[in-house]
Amino acid sequence: MRNRLLRSVVAAALAALVALGVASGVSGAKGDTLAVTEWPTVAVDAGAAGGTGS
């Protein structure tokens, strides 16, 4: 009885994983999209920033 329950749970988990894989494949999501990890460079005026510029 315990083996049958374990087999049913494993089968249900496998079916759920397959369903999620199919759903993510159908959605057209791109998994290789890279995130932008750099901040844009902005020129800062030393006087406006409170620095001791010339």
Please tell me about this protein's structure:
The chain is mainly α and 54 residues long. 46% of the residues lie in helices and 0% in strands. The protein contains one helix and no strands. The protein is rod-shaped and about 80 Å long. 0% of the residues are buried.
Question: Helices and strands in order, then pairings?
Answer:
Elements: H1 2-26
Q: How would you summarize what this structure contains?
A:
The chain has one helix spanning 2-26. It is mainly α and 54 residues long. The longest helix has 25 residues, at 2-26.
Q: H/E element string? A: H
- How many DSSP-defined strands? 0
> How many helical stretches?
1
Mean pLDDT equals 77
**Over the alpha carbons, how many angstroms does the gyration radius reach?**
27 Å
Distance between the termini: 85 Å
Largest sheet: none
Task: Assign an overall shape.
Answer: rod-shaped
Strand content: under 5%
Residue runs with pLDDT of under 50 for 5 or more positions: none
Percent helix, as a range, is 40-55%
Structural class: mainly alpha
Observed structural traits:
single chain, 54 residues, 1 helix, mainly alpha
